[in-house]
């Protein structure tokens, strides 16, 4: 797609031009796109102005001094309440009137969904169009009541006399009165008539009609400030605020239209998050429930500290609860619950083996936390009680601790920087390993940095918190009690010491340096603020300043790449760049306001048109983390790698190699074709909570272009050449992705090879048949041997109860034994003669169905007889019946495939099943089921194929068995079984029957296409195949043998021929234990990946190139490259995605904002968004990563 692809297609443009005016005005639809009667517009205008009329009545009476101002509010509110109820009742009446008719009508598919047919000015269709009504009766009443209250208070808020008292300006009064009522009319219409779609949309669905409350809420906020000003003593700040807000009140419609003010759900979540983080010292949480619970507990702690009468008690309370609340309390609770359940169930074996979730909390962690808490309480109490409190000076105890904090900050900052591949994201770190292509070399070089990481972890976890507690305990501000500012400031700081140690250390160092510079100066900083509030302000400034820098980097990247990237250069690019330069102060102000509000900066359509997005939680999305994903066949690869990746993140986050990891940080991991997106959700003392998403493996052109750029960025950072400069620059500095480090992760490497020269080699294909017989012999022997072990275990439990023979194989008893039937005359070729032949029962549906019914019922009749058979023999009647049953199939094979004709009256050769008498009684352990050797194969052909049976290999396989599960066995057991000719005959019949089913009677070399079809299970049809597929268990064993044989052929072609039987056994045992050999589409393939089978092999075919391919997955520990993303770039693109899809409904798959952008990684960022806006193939639940 070119850069000038339309931002919105024609249909969406028309839709947007209809929706946006409706949003601006609060709901009236004046642009419909089709002709409607004029009264539709007139009715909407009347309803829009109705609140003004109701308020105007009260205002007029007040201005004439007929009633007081509060009676004015009551009168206007009452009139609006009655009007709102009448309007809602009218809608209910119209809906009930037409409900019967609507059920009877047939939907007109030719009518556009937005079109209505109107019959009169007050007709039912007119009423339903203008007043859609509420879904719930509760909302009907509540919204009507709210409309009355808003109209009454709005009338009071906009009384001309009141406005004149604020400004003493008649012109200003008129402007505020007129446009203020426009604002109220917009809020009333959105609440009671028709709710407009908001540009600030957080939830995809408004289930409970909360959107209608958004605009009234902000109106009430402005009115509340005015009421506070009315009923309080003159407060200059409050009066000035009220004056400013009266002016800002006029601009509310513009703020709503631009989507700057958040919807209520996003507002409350964002508000709790901001207060918890900056007011109470906590961290953003991974879920809404955790956020609410932690907010309540943290607020309760701050409130409780206000009522403690002792200064030592306050310090101990703040220190203890600050430490406790910074822990991962939910996981500790789960650990305690798990421990109690395990203890209670310790005597019950059924529960003792339950595999619960792994909880990283044991006695070691418990004693560690208890020790740290005890030492912190002792340190805080002793320093606060015995150390003298003196004013801050360069020689005071608190100043000495400040020097220590400065040294700690510098040391920890240096230790963190040298952990990553780049210093400051610009210069390559000379201490980082030069090349990461070899795992062993990288890990040996990395050990030095790991030691540095351990030192940093100790400083961060133990040394820094205690140093900061000493700084706080020595502060003189704690001598004064019952101060709200002290309770808030110090409660936050004592919590931050543990919750976010690095930021707390930076804030204390900043405050200490400022204090040293200003300690003798009578300024506002020293005079009016205590240390706790200073630290709070420093924390807010630090956070907003970092956001401002990130937003500026993002804005510059969008602006520059719109011109430097040729594929992003549109016709309007030059004009947009010019406008950004001309209005640079306004653009900078927008960015600053966005940073101040901690809201995303929204680049409209990802063009250099910057708007202020509405504030929202740091997670950006409303749903539960990991609840939804676009699950597909690739999901399993991410499910397998996530536990190992989480373990690798544990050391990386603790050592600091990923940089400053704060809630809201985004990381991108790359390995081969896999892309993993990591979002940090919350951070606390010795733990971090993350969400890991997996992006699609089916790469589109846009996905491929951006993935290629990601590979370039990582390759330049990690595959550093020896002759390169020591401090080489990061040539991709402007990219939103900055490489951090490489992590050893246990995952599958994916290798794909073209098998040309192997699968089409005549020698290989010729050897394939012989190897198949050997592999099948081994598989059948292993199958029977393993089954004998199961039978031995079952026999021990049932021997005394049922009196069954100890060496009887259940498979022989469970097999269906059919009654003997007379062989039909060979010339009577009819449906009865070929009853066993069907082709999905299409042509001969009735007869085969009857045959199947008979086969299903007959075993019930003959089952008692089969139990009387003697071990080591086969029931003769059953054998005859089986023999006779093969005649019709053989007749069909002769008739259809044109075998040589046989003279009439001459008996056809068939495979006979004589009575099996084993020379060794233990041979029954390895006996294959009798129906597995009843293939419809002529005796002459069987004798001819018998020569191909690998007898030496058969004897060698038997000699490798141990029979350890048999307690009493003769010393020469293996020798006797090997010499048992009857057992050998069973395997000859069984193996050759499978070979006949897969390859037919022809002795030709199979073609590569035949081999591919046989591998995939789509074997070309033959009579033997019908017989083989009728034995599902045998067919699966034969298919498994064929796949093993094909893998053996590939290995022999790659590694060399097999020297002896022992080496062949090793190959097969390795296939059985360490490999899954099958198809990518198999369910077993997915299970093997999740079970972490060491190796997986699959055969495929590329129809475009016309070649056969082999795919090998190898489980090993490999290096995954990790880079940090610009947080604000991600949030900004997600904000645009939310606006574009939820408001503009621009879901075009080829839209401009989803096209590849190698610097912004736009396509990958869209993929990583939560569904339904994004489409990650995997999204984990919140993963709690311990950092202890």
TrEMBL record:
Keywords: Membrane, Transmembrane, Transmembrane helix. It is a multi-pass membrane protein. The chain crosses the membrane at residues 39-64, 70-94, 136-158, 170-192, 213-232, 244-270, 291-308, 314-336, 366-387, 399-415, 454-474, 505-525, 576-597. GO terms for cellular component: membrane. Residues 1027-1181 form the Pecanex C-terminal domain. It is found in: Membrane. Belongs to the pecanex family. This is Pecanex-like protein.
């Amino acid at each position: 797609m070119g850069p000038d692809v339309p931002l919105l297609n024609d249909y969406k443009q028309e839709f947007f031009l209809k929706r946006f005016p409706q949003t601006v005005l609060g709901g009236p639809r004046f642009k419909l796109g089709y002709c409607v009667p004029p009264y539709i517009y007139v009715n909407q205008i009347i309803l829009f102005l109705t609140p003004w009329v109701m308020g105007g009545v009260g205002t007029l009476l007040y201005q004439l001094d007929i009633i007081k101002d509060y009676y004015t509010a009551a009168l206007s509110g009452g009139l609006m309440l009655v009007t709102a109820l009448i309007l809602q009742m009218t809608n209910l009446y119209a809906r009930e009137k037409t409900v019967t008719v609507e059920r009877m009508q047939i939907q007109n598919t030719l009518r556009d969904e937005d079109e209505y047919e109107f019959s009169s000015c007050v007709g039912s269709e007119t009423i339903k169009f203008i007043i859609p009504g509420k879904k719930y009766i509760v909302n009907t009443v509540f919204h009507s009541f709210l409309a009355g209250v808003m109209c009454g208070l709005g009338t009071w808020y906009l009384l001309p006399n009141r406005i004149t008292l604020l400004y003493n300006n008649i012109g200003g009064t008129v402007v505020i009165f007129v446009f203020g009522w426009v604002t109220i009319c917009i809020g009333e219409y959105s609440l009671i008539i028709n709710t407009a779609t908001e540009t600030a949309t957080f939830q995809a669905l408004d289930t409970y009609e909360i959107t209608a409350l958004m605009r009234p809420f902000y109106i009430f906020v402005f009115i509340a400030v005015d009421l506070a000003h009315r009923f309080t003593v003159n407060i200059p700040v409050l009066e000035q605020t009220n004056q400013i807000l009266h002016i800002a009140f006029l601009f509310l419609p513009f703020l709503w239209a631009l989507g700057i003010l958040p919807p209520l759900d996003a507002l409350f979540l964002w508000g709790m998050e901001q207060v918890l983080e900056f007011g109470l010292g906590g961290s953003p949480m991974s879920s809404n429930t955790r956020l609410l619970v932690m907010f309540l507990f943290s607020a309760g702690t701050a409130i409780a500290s206000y009522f403690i009468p002792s200064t030592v008690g306050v310090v101990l309370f703040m220190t203890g609860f600050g430490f406790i609340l910074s822990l991962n309390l939910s996981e500790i609770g789960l650990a305690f619950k798990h421990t109690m359940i395990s203890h209670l169930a310790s005597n019950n074996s059924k529960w003792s083996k339950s595999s619960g979730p792994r909880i990283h909390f044991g006695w070691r962690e418990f004693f560690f936390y208890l020790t740290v808490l005890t030492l912190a309480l002792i340190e805080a109490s002793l320093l606060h009680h015995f150390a003298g409190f003196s004013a801050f000076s360069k020689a005071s105890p608190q100043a000495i601790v400040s020097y220590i904090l400065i040294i700690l900050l510098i040391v920890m900052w240096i230790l963190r920087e040298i952990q990553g591949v780049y210093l400051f994201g610009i210069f390559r770190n000379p201490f980082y390993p030069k090349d990461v292509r070899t795992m062993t070399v990288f890990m040996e070089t990395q050990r030095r940095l790991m030691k540095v990481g351990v030192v940093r972890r100790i400083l961060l976890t133990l040394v820094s918190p205690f140093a900061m507690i000493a700084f706080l305990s020595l502060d003189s501000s704690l001598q004064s009690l019952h101060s709200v500012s002290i309770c808030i400031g110090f409660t936050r700081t004592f919590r931050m010491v543990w919750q976010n140690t690095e930021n707390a250390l930076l804030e204390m160092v900043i405050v200490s340096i400022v204090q040293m510079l200003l300690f003798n100066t009578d300024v506002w900083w020293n005079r009016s603020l205590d240390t706790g509030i200073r630290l709070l302000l420093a924390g807010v400034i630090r956070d907003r300043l970092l956001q401002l820098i990130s937003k500026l980097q993002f804005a510059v990247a969008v602006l520059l790449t719109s011109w430097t990237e040729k594929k992003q250069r549109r016709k309007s690019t030059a004009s947009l760049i010019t406008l950004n330069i001309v209005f640079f102060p306004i653009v900078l102000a927008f960015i600053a306001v966005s940073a101040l509000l901690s809201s995303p900066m929204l680049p409209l359509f990802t063009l250099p048109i910057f708007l202020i997005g509405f504030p929202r939680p740091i997670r950006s999305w409303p749903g539960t983390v990991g609840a939804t994903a676009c699950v597909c066949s690739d999901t399993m690869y991410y499910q397998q790698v996530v536990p190992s990746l989480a373990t690798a993140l544990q050391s990386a986050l603790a050592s600091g190699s990923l940089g400053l990891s704060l809630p809201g940080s985004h990381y991108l991991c790359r390995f081969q074709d896999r892309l993993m997106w990591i979002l940090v959700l919350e951070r606390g003392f010795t733990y971090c909570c993350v969400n890991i998403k997996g992006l699609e493996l089916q790469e589109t052109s846009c996905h491929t272009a951006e993935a290629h750029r990601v590979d370039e960025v990582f390759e330049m950072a990690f595959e550093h050449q020896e002759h390169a400069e020591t401090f080489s620059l990061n040539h991709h500095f402007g990219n939103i992705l900055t490489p951090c480090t490489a992590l050893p992760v246990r995952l599958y490497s994916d290798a794909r090879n073209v098998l040309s020269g192997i699968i089409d080699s005549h020698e290989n294909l010729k050897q394939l048949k012989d190897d198949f017989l050997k592999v099948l012999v081994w598989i059948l022997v292993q199958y029977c041997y393993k089954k004998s072990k199961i039978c031995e275990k079952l026999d021990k439990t049932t021997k005394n109860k049922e009196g069954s023979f100890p060496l009887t194989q259940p498979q022989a008893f469970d097999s269906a034994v059919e009654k003997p039937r007379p062989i039909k005359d060979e010339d009577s070729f009819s449906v009865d003669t070929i009853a066993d032949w069907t082709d999905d029962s299409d042509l001969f549906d009735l007869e085969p169905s009857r045959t199947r019914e008979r086969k299903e019922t007959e075993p019930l009749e003959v089952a008692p007889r089969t139990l009387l058979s003697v071990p080591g023999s086969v029931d003769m009647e059953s054998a005859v019946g089986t023999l006779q049953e093969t005649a019709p199939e053989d007749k069909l094979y002769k008739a259809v495939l044109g075998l040589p004709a046989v003279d009439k009256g001459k008996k056809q050769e068939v495979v006979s099943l004589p009575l099996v008498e084993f020379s060794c009684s233990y041979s029954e352990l390895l006996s294959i089921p009798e129906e597995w050797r009843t293939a419809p194969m002529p005796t002459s052909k069987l004798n001819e194929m018998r020569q191909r049976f690998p007898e030496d290999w058969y004897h060698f396989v038997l000699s490798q068995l141990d029979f350890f599960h048999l307690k009493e066995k003769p010393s020469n057991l293996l020798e006797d079984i090997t010499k048992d000719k009857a057992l050998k005959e069973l395997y000859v019949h069984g193996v050759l029957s499978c070979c006949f089913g897969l390859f037919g009677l022809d002795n030709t070399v199979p073609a590569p296409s035949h081999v591919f079809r046989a591998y995939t299970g789509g074997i070309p049809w033959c009579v033997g195949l019908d017989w083989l597929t009728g034995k599902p268990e045998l067919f699966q064993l034969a298919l498994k043998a064929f796949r093993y044989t094909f893998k053996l052929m590939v290995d022999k072609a790659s590694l060399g021929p097999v020297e002896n039987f022992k080496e062949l056994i090793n190959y097969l045992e390795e296939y059985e234990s360490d490999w899954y050999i099958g198809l990518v589409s198999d369910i077993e393939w997915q299970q093997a990946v999740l079970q972490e089978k060491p190796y997986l092999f699959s055969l495929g075919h590329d129809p475009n190139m016309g070649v056969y391919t082999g795919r090998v997955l190898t489980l090993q520990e490999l290096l995954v490259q990790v880079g940090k993303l610009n947080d604000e770039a991600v949030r900004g693109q997600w904000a645009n995605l939310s606006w574009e899809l939820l408001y503009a409904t621009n879901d075009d798959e080829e839209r401009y904002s989803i096209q590849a952008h190698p610097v912004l990684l736009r396509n990958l960022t869209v993929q990583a968004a939560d569904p339904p806006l994004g489409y990650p193939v995997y999204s984990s639940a919140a993963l709690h990563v311990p950092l202890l």
